[in-house]
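Issue 218. Parser rejects a valid record. Input:
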Amino acid sequence: MFIETQSFTAEYWSGWLVITDRSSNEAYPIQLRDSKTGRNITRQQFNSAIKTHGTDKACQTFCKLYELPSTPCYS
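Output the parser choked on:
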């Protein structure tokens, strides 16, 4: 899967979604897993986001997921 817009390039490769912001040339590798089964759900969630919100909004949202901390925060 390879998708290009004026703002982003998104490529799904070997279980990872790699989104490149064309303005800053930064790459955001993202992988989502189901917490119960451990299965990779990245492609399914990304395709669903594109259908409901459009490609640019889906890319923006998934880039924000990359920026979240990788370890859970406990309060």
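Fixed in the parser; the record now loads. The two ends are 39 Å apart (CA to CA).
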